[in-house]
């Protein structure tokens, strides 16, 4: 059974003229890591929010088509039920801090308390999340006394503690400095090991190339392409969609160095290195 | 990060009393002087509050709280002493100003009432952490969502104030005048508060989304991470207070 | 919007999260007014905005939470005046709902009404607590003058409070109006409870 199935999804925010999402259809398997790229305003955030039910239940607006998470129809369900299956992390670390808790440990417990979990279970899950995100040493600190990267890892930990099978990351490092970004990507690598299905919107294209099993391009509310990274980044028309391919891919394209077997440009630095070094043979 | 609080951390017996008993006490300290409006009752209540504050080792900290109201109390003494409608008996004359006994006595009653109320509230405020007050209320039936609203105010305000300084500097560097005539200063108000409002409304939307995906509106009965704090003597205190209130009412009816 | 919706107790997450923001804006308004040395309190702008955006009930709760938190963390006397803050929230909410915040002229009228309501609600508290005074220099001077001239205490006290409230509340409401008009639609319709999901 496919983990996520989207059929003809259409959505329009209240008091707007144009559709934010126009007839989107795709499927995602369990355990896949999906990268989502495209210009600002392409509908990436809207799509993320459609996966967790914020679209349509938070914003209202006009909604059509079906989003099925493990066969639960998002449009007919509610945000609470869905939050046990799919979690979301947003761009801004500050606004994801509830503000009502005085330590990181208690902050992560917030969602668990809301679902009435027993204390033992809560502690197990919080300890697990703290370790996975490498923030155990901050567990007694005030949530507002963390750096951006630490705060964002706390946000991810808060969601992971709710044990969703799917996690959506909507530009998780946009508001972080380079060090904070690295910390978060390292944490995301840990997530991959746990076999969670991940959907990540990112502008740092090298990271998308590195982590994704498949990559989706959105433009103007429409799904342009959804394929393995090698095929996506070998497209000639990436610039039209506001996407810049990874640096080494562009270099190889410029030097016209392709992988002889696939006819595609390399997307990792190692592959690029091998091809460039060996091209004279 | 400082949270807003007047809580004083001390090892005292009053600190171990539960917040709801303290709320009962405040109720009694406010109501009994109203039911039995004599000077001796007010004075007794005040003494009891001071005693409790001393037991709680926080008596010294009440003084700044009372001094908040110091100027207005002083002005009340002066104004009532000079101008109260029922003034007849001269108490003291300073130059052309004559202070009367009736007015001064009325002012004195007011001062006692105010100090009484401040002391009673201070017992709660100085010996209990705001977060504990809220947690106890939620355990006892307050909607967890309202409990959230109250707890988050305590941390969100210092956050907003710290972003305020950045905005002030940014606006000043754009040539906004913050000194000068009244009109000039008034014109500076909106450019200073505008960004704060905008920021906080955007944050509000993002925070609301983040809360919703963490089960904020879950219909399940909430659980608590921490064990309930073992407060002492709760039932005994509450019963005593209710009895005293009942006594006061009966006394009033009899006399 | 039907009449029932103004008084609805169904709180959305967004309107609840608005309350701490409103209290913060109240606090910062007071800070800025003090630092600019303005002769006004301007400590109810947040409550007013919350009322305009989310209605009288959220406005009232914002007012109450404002005084409760201020009472717990700075000055216990604030607890006693929670009712005044709530009254301001309700008044602005109702007036805004009925269209009295649609242009600057109407906003000024709303300011006058709020000043009146605030004075009416605060006067019994002022009389019961402070014997009729308000602690404001000009207001109390008027109180003395009126008392000496033979006016009953409740009138002297009411006018004492009104003299303070009129400039302060009218300025507060006008400022809230100007800020509200400057807000993007995206932010304001979030608190509009009435949207339903349309089918496409």
Question: Can you give me a brief rundown of this structure?
Answer:
The complex is a heterotrimer of chains A (281), B (255) and C (200). With 255 residues, chain B is mainly alpha-helical. Chain B is built from 10 helices and 2 strands.
Can you walk through the features of this model?
- The complex is a heterotrimer of chains A (281), B (255) and C (200).
- In chain A, the strands form two sheets. Chain A has a six-stranded mixed beta sheet, sandwiched between helices. In chain A, strands 2-1-4-5 form a four-stranded antiparallel beta sheet, with helices on one face.
- With 281 residues, chain A is of the alpha/beta class.
- Chain A contains eleven helices and ten strands.
- Chain A folds into two domains: 30-59 and 78-238, Rossmann fold (3-Layer(aba) Sandwich); 246-281.
- Chain A is 36% helix and 21% strand.
- By secondary structure, chain B is mostly helical.
- Chain B has two domains: 14-135 and 229-254, no CATH class; 143-212, no CATH class.
- Helices cover 68% and strands 4% of the residues of chain B.
- The longest helix of chain B has 30 residues, at 144-173.
- The termini of chain B are far apart.
- Chain C is mainly alpha-helical.
- Chain C has a single domain (13-191), classed as Orthogonal Bundle (Arp2/3 complex 21 kDa subunit ARPC3).
- Chain C has helices spanning 3-6, 13-35, 45-54, 56-73, 77-80, 82-97, 104-130, 137-148, 153-181, 185-188; one strand spanning 198-199.
- In chain C, helix 2 (13-35) runs antiparallel to helix 3 (45-54), helix 2 packs across helix 4 (56-73) and helix 3 runs antiparallel to helix 4.
- Chain C is elongated and about 70 Å long.
- Chains in contact: A-B, A-C, B-C.
- At the B-C interface, helix 4, helix 5, helix 7, helix 8 and helix 9 of B face helix 2, helix 4, helix 5, helix 8 and helix 9 of C.
- Strand 4 (62-69) of chain A pairs parallel with strand 1 (198-199) of chain C.
